[in-house]
Write a structure and sequence with these properties.
Low-confidence stretches: none
Strand content: 5-15%
Number of strands: 13
CATH superfamily of the largest domain: Glycogen Phosphorylase B
CATH topology of the largest domain: Rossmann fold
Helix content: 40-55%
Number of helices: 17
Bound molecules: uridine-5'-diphosphate
Number of domains: 2
Mean pLDDT: 97
Structural class: alpha/beta
Length: 355
């Protein structure tokens, strides 16, 4: 079977690491990299470290508004699918690349497989939420990471077949976290000790594109009384710079700014952090899996099980709540939530069974 996989940004490269290699054992896979994340720090290093096969097609589509970017991707992926004529198109998650790949395939009557289907924040102001809902409703095979996702899709009566496979990111965490935990170079580079720092990431449009909200993030970071490592997503770096707050952060002794990190360096920091402070979807799960309590800089999450389990606290950008949550002790129990590390195998099996 021939499968075209459309990916384009950092978390999708991580997810593909759990699937592409397995897929290629039995099938012919063609990877299309849309270019949404194109710099080496957000793209090339992930292919190298996680052994994701080199993309067969690079579309170099980045920048612009979400609407413009998605439209340009659709324009490029349509003819590409005509040439490649795959049996299936595979997409991951909730980005512009996801919805563009899915819609171009559906319009060409090519079956769409959506990995990480069914996630909902129920916040339509998030561009990711629109991408998820649209992709789920045009997909033929919806592979979900959790029972919550399954229930979301049942409630929305999606047309495609829904299969619970677990979370492919757990597979990747299981593969790489044990080694990363013992590689302390990234900690030395940041000047922090194991178990004695907070790791922070923030890049959601709703947090960094609105100056008043971005300032609240800066104030939280400045108020911490322990080292905080902040690998800066380019979008966040640009917004902080434009607002004139980057120097203020850089000038604070306890704030350790870093460029966006490769997966191994980031995972070394994540597994050794005392707490994780983030607005990332993927990082919330990775923290749970690593046994590091997470404080989430949003008022909703798709990964509700981590909150229910007591290992993740939603604080939005409220300073007092963030400082309090960072001091809370997690419960003793940390049940397995998103699968056993074999989601990639189940993805391939579900595709085989569907076609
Ligand atoms: N990540 C990384 N380096 C960093 C920050 C994040 O390797 O400096 C990884 C992280 O381990 C996770 C993924 O990138 O696997 C999450 O990506 P991101 O937060 O950009 O996207 P989201 O999950 O919010 O969609």
């Amino acid at each position: 079977m021939k499968i075209v996989t459309v990916i384009g940004n950092r978390p999708q490269f991580v997810k593909a690491a759990a699937v592409s290699r397995l897929l290629r054992e039995a099938h012919d896979e063609v990877i299309v990299h849309t270019g949404q994340h194109h710099d080496d720090e957000l793209s090339a290093i992930f292919f190298a470290e996680l052994q994701v096969p080199r993309p067969e097609h690079q579309l170099h589509i980045a920048g612009g508004t979400n609407t413009e970017q998605t439209a340009r991707m659709l324009g490029a992926i349509g003819p590409l699918l005509q040439d490649e004529a795959p049996d299936v198109v595979l997409v991951y998650g909730d980005t512009n690349s996801t919805v563009a790949g899915g819609l171009a395939a559906a319009q060409a009557r090519i079956p769409v497989v959506h990995v990480e289907a069914g996630m909902r924040s129920f916040d339509r102001a998030m561009p990711e939420e629109l991408n998820r809902v649209l992709t789920d409703h045009l997909s033929d095979l919806l592979l979900v990471p959790s029972e919550t996702a399954q229930a979301n899709l049942a409630r929305e009566s999606v047309a495609g077949r829904v299969v619970l496979v677990g979370d492919v990111m757990v597979d990747v965490s299981m593969m790489f976290q044990p080694r990363a935990r013992t590689e302390l170079r990234a900690l030395r580079d940041a000047g922090v000790e194991p178990g004695a720092f907070v790791l922070c990431t923030a890049h959601r449009a709703g947090n960094v594109d609105v100056p008043e909200r971005l300032r609240r993030l800066v104030d939280i970071l400045l108020a911490l009384d322990e080292p905080v490592v902040l690998p800066l997503h380019p979008r966040t770096g640009a917004r902080l710079d434009a607002a004139g707050w980057l120097d203020e952060l850089a000038g604070a002794d306890h704030v350790r700014l870093a460029p966006p990190l490769g997966y191994m360096a980031f995972t070394a920091l994540l597994t050794n952090a005392r707490r994780v402070l983030t607005d990332s979807g993927g990082v919330q799960k990775e923290a749970y899996f690593a046994g590091v309590p997470c404080v989430t800089l949003r008022d909703t999450t798709e990964w509700v099980e981590t909150v229910d389990a007591g290992w993740n606290v939603l604080v939005d950008l409220d300073l007092h709540s963030a400082l309090t949550a960072l001091r809370e002790t997690p419960p003793a129990a940390r049940p397995e939530l998103y699968g056993d590390g074999r989601a990639g195998e189940r993805v391939v099996a579900a595709i085989d069974a569907h076609t």
